[in-house]
User: Which sequence fits this backbone?
């Protein structure tokens, strides 16, 4: 007599997980973050002029407040360190931020992206002004200084809002001016 075998059930499938896959912080993630950072640097390079104070105010807005690449204390510390070094403070500051985010390769690319618009603009301006009449050149550049003073004053105001919080700091600021 044969014993009937019970019907076999299909093998149970692995439980379905509704959680997202674990995040990978690999090369691709760092590369995408570096590309976004370089786009932000390009936006700053095309729009930031007026010296280190204006650049610092724009870096606060974009790199600290919006993107949160670094904190405001870190940005102030890096800017103060770069101000002590010989050379252009803004260029050194943005390059060291690139170095902190992605190492030397991102720092080199940051430097290239940061300086390309200004080098191109200044080269074109020099070539154009060398072929114009000196009277027209004087009329063209007579308003550059007041505009630059306005940018620096506005940037100083924005930085003071973030940095100066005590009466002692106000006294030091007034005495330094």
Assistant:
């Amino acid at each position: 007599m044969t014993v009937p075998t019970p019907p076999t059930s299909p093998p149970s499938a692995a439980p379905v997980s509704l959680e997202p896959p674990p995040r990978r912080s690999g090369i691709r993630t760092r590369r995408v973050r570096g590309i976004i950072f370089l786009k932000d640097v390009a936006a700053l390079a095309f729009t930031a002029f007026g010296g280190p104070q204006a650049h610092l105010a724009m870096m606060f807005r974009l790199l600290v407040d919006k993107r949160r690449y670094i904190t405001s204390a870190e940005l102030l510390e890096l800017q103060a360190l770069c101000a002590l070094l010989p050379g252009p403070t803004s260029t050194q500051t943005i390059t060291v931020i690139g170095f902190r985010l992605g190492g030397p390769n991102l720092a080199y690319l940051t430097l290239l992206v940061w300086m390309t618009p200004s080098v191109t603009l200044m080269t074109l301006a020099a070539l154009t002004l060398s072929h114009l009449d000196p009277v027209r050149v004087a009329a063209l550049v007579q308003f550059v200084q007041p505009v630059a003073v306005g940018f620096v004053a506005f940037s100083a105001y924005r930085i003071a809002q973030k940095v100066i919080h005590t009466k002692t700091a106000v006294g030091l600021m007034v005495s330094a001016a």
In short: Residues 28-176 form one domain. The helical segments are 27-47, 52-66, 72-84, 89-130, 134-141, 144-163, 167-176. The first helix runs from residue 27 to 47.
